[in-house]
Structures are given as structure tokens and as C-alpha cells.
Amino acid sequence: MSESPDTVSRGRQWRGYVFRAITWMVAIACFYYVYTRIEAAAARDGLTAIEYLVVFFAGANWTLWLAVMVPYSVFFFLVDAHVTWRVVRWFNAPDLKFTSVLPIRASAYVLSLVSEQVGKGAMSLYLLKRHRVAGWQALSSMIFLGLLEIYQLLMFSAGGVLLDFGVVVDASSLLPLDVILPAVFVFAAVYLPIHIAYFRGVLFKESKLRDKSLLVAFRRARPIHYLLTVLFKAPNLLGAVVVYTVALQLFQVEVSLGQMLAFLPVIFLAAALPLPFHAGALVLWTVLFPDYPEVGAFSLVMHTFFVLFNALIGVLFLPRANKELFVNEEAGTSA
Q: What secondary structure letter does DSSP report for 6?
């Protein structure tokens, strides 16, 4: 006997509550861990944790920090919009113009303050209204971008680890990163060609999973699309490595470009975990830089500024985004 729709709905609702409760408990545990590390460092200097953080932030060069962060945030937006435009043109709307993507991508930053899922839906809504692209097919391009984001981070991290494996060994006091990271890199390298071969119809030819609308971007993608997407995304990550290196030095934290190249992509991966306040990244900062537990607080400042400034960019584009989505629907693909 099948369950009623109401029963199924209540079951999903309760699973959602349980999932959110677990993520909040994990996040609280992460914050507590970081706090204990900061408190221990503060005690060595005869300070409370709050006093320790006040001294840390008071010593920063905030003017130069803003001079670095503002241009990078604008640069990030332009690169992000460009790679989104490329992928959507390949798989969904060949006539799409870059200037049409800018306001939609910018407005997604505002929506992401409420929910990442809502933010991702902005492009799908635009493609449905203006280019008659089915929602699942539009979402497939966003999933494709998400997968390539992960692979870009892994590739650059692998490059940084190969260039200076010593920094990974030095950072492996709390976690065996010198074992974990190479294992993850190997798994990702083995999986990608299998993934491409499957969606190109070379492997498991009888499988119907690849025919789902949600996966249409992977079915249409050729190996060159994977390579170009990573290359188009690369400037943002390389810029982030430089920006975070400079920013940490402005906060009197001694780091090298090699450390940032090896660790920052992994930290960004941890930030993608479904935890409130990117608690996974918060802990990883503290683990990777055990001599500077205050970098956990630094990461919160960096992330908060980046999210809010991108949202400000989105606010500036909102009138144009509203026009694209709701005023000129009759214009069709001519936009």
C-alpha cells in the first residue's frame, strides 16, 4: 500500500528538520573548536579570546585590504558571468548575449543571501522566460558548472601540493593531509575520464540515467568543454590565491603563495559543505594554520565582505535584471 501525498510530504519535512539540526550541531562544534584554539593562543599572551582578536584586527592595514578586495570582487563577478555565459551558450541558448547574462548573474548574488538554491534558480528562470529553455535543462548547466568548480579546485590544489609537498606535511599535525589530499586527487583523476566516457555513450550503453533532462549538459558536453570551462574559471582562483596571500600578510600572518595554492582550493571545497556560516572552511583554516588560530575569524571577515559586496553589485543590476525577467518577455531571444 502506497503512502499518501501528505504522509510523504510530512516525511520530507521531518527529514529536512533533522538535516538542518545536524548541520547546526556540526557548525556549533566547529565554532567551539576554533574558539578553544583561539582561547589557548590568547592565554599564552595573557589575554582573553576577545582581547586577542581585537589586537589581531587592530593590527591590520584595512585601507590596503579594501584596495585589494574591491577590485577583486568586481573581477570575480566578470569572470564568473563570463564562464556562465559560455556554458549556457554551449548547452542551452546559442544566441544568448554576454550583456544579458551580467544582470541575471549579479542578481543571483542578492538572492544567494537568502539561499544558494534560490540564487542558482535566477538563471534558470531567465532562460525559461526569454529562451524557452526547460528548467531542468537550464539547471543541468548549473550542475555542470558546479562539477567543474570542484575539479578546478582539485587541479590547482594538486599543482600546489606537487610544487611544495613540504607545506602539506607541516600542516598534517591534526589531520593526515599528506595522505588525504593525494588520495582525493587520485580518485578525482580516475573518475573524470569514466564520467566523460559514460555521458558520451562509450560506457554502460544500456544505461538510461544519462538521458535525464537534469543531465543534458553532461550529455552534450565534449572533452573540450570541460577543459575550456576550467580555463575560463582559472583567473578567479589564481586571483584568489594572490588576494588571500596579500590579505593575510596585511593581517600580519606569514604565508606564501605556495601555501595558498595548495590549501586555498581545499578550503573553498570545505566552504561548499552544507554547514551554516561555512563552518567547514572555518575549521580547515585553523587546522592548516595551527600557529595562527585567529585566521578562522579572518576567514569570516573575508567571506562576509565578499558576499555583501557581490550582493551590492547585484543591487546595482537589479533594475536591469527585473527588466530582463519581467518587462521584456515578449522580446524573446532577441535580447
A: H
